[in-house]
Specification:
This protein is an alpha/beta fold. It is built from 8 helices and 9 strands. The strands form 2 sheets. A 7-stranded parallel β-sheet has the order 3-2-1-4-6-7-9, with helices on both faces. Helix 1 links the parallel strand 1 and strand 2. Helix 1 crosses helix 7, helix 3 packs parallel to helix 4 and helix 4 packs parallel to helix 5. It starts with 7 loop residues before the first strand and ends in a 15-residue tail after the last helix. Bound molecules: nicotinamide-adenine-dinucleotide (NAD). Nicotinamide-adenine-dinucleotide (NAD) binds next to helix 1. The site of nicotinamide-adenine-dinucleotide has 32 residues, from helix 1.
Length: 272
């Protein structure tokens, strides 16, 4: 089991929210950091916090496979090892299945799902060649396990991250590789995710609803602590709010019993 008390952590979406908290938790545990984000100015602030010896920062759009591959080369050239890969970058979009443009559908899925895939494809082969214990943490969402109306592209992408992570875990198990996998399904965490969201004209109330939910959520710091604790304990499924499993149980129960599921909004707002 990995303890994450040294070595190198790679974090995408590192300039804000959960990603920034993952960087700080990794640093607190003595790890060096490779931090990637599309937001250069917040990334510069992060670099100032740790200094260049400890922290490599790179402006990376995770939906650009060539750039992700280049970032991986930069990280290996600089540190020669990767012990932890956190594919965390993600964006939220609210809008109906038909009201959201195909272009926006594609962008959200390319960032949230292909971004994780590109991270895995760029970093895993050299991690395997190195042959040392390492771990991959992919950030999905509670939206990776239950669907919400007007969050189609986000939900599709997050179900995809869950499916990709399970597939990857099984492939690594079959190879008896020393690389672990976790998938994080956070509930509400107080970050900028809903403020940074896009919405079609008819769905702006959804991002407001989400913002009020996440604003009351757990701190990103606590979320990052939970992620590290549970990954260190070897857990694949990481839930920040295990009570959300009641929604998953109800979904599964409905598969046995109900002709079709009926959406019931979660009480008291929600993070996705
Ligand atoms: N906050 C919550 O309640 C919550 C709940 C469930 C899942 N999540 C997931 O957690 C992850 C982190 O989100 P957060 O809540 O910290 O939000 P956030 O908006 O505060 O941070 C997301 C970061 O990702 C970066 N990013 C966006 N697009 C990118 C791209 N193309 N390439 C590289 N970086 C990019 C942003 O610049 C930002 O720094 C996301 O995957 C999100 O879906 C968050």
């Amino acid at each position: 089991m990995m303890q994450f008390d040294g070595g190198v952590a790679v974090v995408t979406g590192a300039a804000s929210g959960i990603g920034r908290a993952l960087v700080r938790e990794a640093a607190r545990r003595g790890m060096s950091i490779a931090a990637a984000d599309i937001d250069a100015s917040h990334l510069a602030t992060l670099a100032g916090e740790f200094g260049p010896d400890r922290c490599l920062t790179a402006t990376v759009d995770v939906s650009n496979e060539d750039r992700v591959n280049q970032f991986a080369d930069e990280v290996w050239a600089r540190f020669g090892r990767v012990d932890l890969l956190c594919n965390n970058a993600g964006v939220l979009h609210a809008g109906g299945v038909c009201e959201t443009s195909s272009e926006r559908w594609r962008q959200v899925v390319e960032i949230n799902l292909f971004g994780v895939l590109y991270g895995v494809r760029a970093f895993l082969p050299p991690m395997l060649r190195r042959g040392m214990a390492a771990h991959i943490i992919n950030t999905a969402s509670s939206a990776g396990l239950t669907a919400t109306p007007l969050l189609g592209p986000y939900t599709v992408s997050k179900y995809g991250v869950v499916a990709l992570s399970e597939t990857l875990l099984f492939e690594l198990q079959a190879m008896q590789a020393p690389i672990g996998v976790s998938v994080v399904c956070p509930g509400a965490v107080a970050t900028q995710v809903a403020r940074n969201a896009s919405a079609t004209p008819g769905a702006t109330q959804v991002t407001e609803w989400l913002h009020s939910g996440v604003a009351q959520g757990m701190t990103a710091t606590r979320c990052a602590e939970i992620i590290f604790e549970q990954a260190a304990a070897g857990r694949f499924w990481i839930f920040t709010h295990p009570e959300m499993l009641a929604e998953v149980d109800a979904r599964t129960q409905g598969m046995h019993e109900a002709p079709a599921p009926i959406y019931v909004p979660p009480a008291g707002g929600s993070g996705r």
